[in-house]
């Protein structure tokens, strides 16, 4: 597949990507290479990655425990200390090998260590490939609040090796699929319609769908790298989705949701809001709700959940001057950013989701 040119870096695919990593490492003559992994990618992905890395530079592996719960400043402190102990310097390279937690956290570690050292992403989950590794956003959670601390710093490159997906559980594949659905809903109706019946998808050609999803995200980011305007479109489903994800993460009586599972709910809720605000037809909303509910298990909410979820909305990063801002869809394939939504309509959306 042809490489995708992003703002200041490139996204390369499969075998060609390894060739370019090795060319980069040789050209830059890095003093040392640090590969950041979590406990999953260390066991499953690193053995397949290392044989493809050709270098005389010293290689060190830094592992942290897998899971969103470890995407925090304490994990970063541990990694910064290890980098210091292993004599990392401004001429070192960090390679982030793993899912979205690894690329988000590893990018933040690299962009802040010694005021910034080179890094690149090798995402190993579908979610990381089509979303987390693309666009230059890096960061960690603050308690249960998603991505409150971070930077926008671009990597030297991104390598998409879809062979890593062969080891991915089905629930993780569905989690990544949510971001692909979002890309269709906000940007390309034809792309969205490819997912209306998953039984008709030729998964032998799934690489093409991944490529198209990355292309869509990159096109939006190129227009607005700092998220001052249209890049907010990528937050469709995330205003409520992130609040739901955070609430389930902190609640002892709730089972944690994968990111894509929470975003799937968020997209249904925010599609309902779009419909009720006259931006979306009833037929379009029903299609969205039916399609997404056909892919993801229903999440159970009770009345006691809505108030704390609503309180978490005030921490959404799109908010301005204390006002909650939504990105809503104006017909499938189009977006309308900076939309205010009253609490009554949010509660109605939850009631409709349960129906």
TrEMBL record:
Enzyme Commission number(s) of this protein: 4.2.3.4
Record domain 3-dehydroquinate synthase N-terminal: where: 63-174
Keywords: Cobalt, Lyase, Metal-binding, NAD, Nucleotide-binding, Zinc
Cofactor(s) this protein requires: Co(2+); NAD(+)
Coiled-coil ranges per UniProt: none
EC category name: lyase
Domain 3-dehydroquinate synthase C-terminal: 176-319
Highest taxon in the source lineage: Bacteria
GO molecular function: 3-dehydroquinate synthase activity
InterPro entries: Dehydroquinate_synthase, DHQ_synth_AroB, DHQ_synth_fam, DHQS/DOIS_N, DHQS_C
Function: Catalyzes the conversion of 3-deoxy-D-arabino-heptulosonate 7-phosphate (DAHP) to dehydroquinate (DHQ).
Protein name: 3-dehydroquinate synthase
The organism's taxonomic lineage, starting at the top: Bacteria, Pseudomonadati, Bacteroidota, Flavobacteriia, Flavobacteriales
């Amino acid at each position: 597949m042809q490489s995708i040119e992003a703002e200041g870096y490139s996204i390369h695919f499969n075998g060609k990507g390894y060739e370019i990593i090795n060319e980069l490492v040789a050209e830059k003559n890095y003093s040392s290479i640090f590969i950041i992994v979590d406990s999953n990618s260390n066991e499953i992905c690193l053995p397949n990655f290392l044989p493809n890395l050709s270098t005389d530079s010293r290689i060190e592996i830094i592992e942290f425990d897998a899971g969103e719960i470890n995407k925090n400043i304490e994990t970063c402190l541990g990694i910064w200390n290890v980098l210091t102990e292993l004599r990392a310097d401004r001429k070192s390279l960090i390679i982030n090998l793993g899912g979205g937690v690894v690329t988000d956290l590893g990018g933040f570690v690299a962009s802040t260590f010694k005021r910034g050292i080179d890094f690149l992403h090798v995402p190993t989950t579908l979610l990381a490939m089509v979303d987390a590794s693309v666009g230059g956003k890096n960061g960690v959670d603050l308690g249960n609040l998603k991505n409150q601390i971070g930077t926008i710093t671009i990597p030297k490159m991104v390598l998409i090796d879809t062979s890593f997906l062969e080891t991915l559980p089905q629930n993780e594949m569905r989690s990544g699929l949510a971001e692909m659905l979002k890309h269709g809903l906000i940007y390309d109706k034809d792309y969205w319609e490819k997912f209306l019946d998953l039984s008709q998808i030729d998964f032998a050609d799934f690489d093409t769908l991944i490529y198209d999803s990355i292309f869509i995200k990159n096109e939006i980011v190129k227009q607005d790298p700092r998220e001052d305007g249209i890049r907010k479109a990528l937050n469709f489903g995330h205003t409520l989705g992130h609040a739901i994800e955070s609430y389930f993460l902190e609640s002892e009586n709730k089972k944690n949701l994968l990111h894509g599972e929470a975003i799937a709910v968020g997209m249904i809720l925010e599609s309902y809001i779009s419909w009720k605000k006259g931006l979306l037809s009833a037929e379009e909303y029903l299609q969205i709700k039916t399609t997404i509910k056909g892919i993801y298990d229903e999440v159970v909410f009770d009345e006691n959940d809505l108030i704390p979820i609503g309180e978490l909305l005030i921490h959404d990063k799109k908010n301005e001057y204390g006002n909650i801002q939504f990105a809503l869809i104006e017909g499938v394939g189009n977006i309308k950013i900076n939309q205010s939504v009253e609490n009554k309509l949010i509660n109605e959306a939850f009631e409709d989701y349960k129906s």
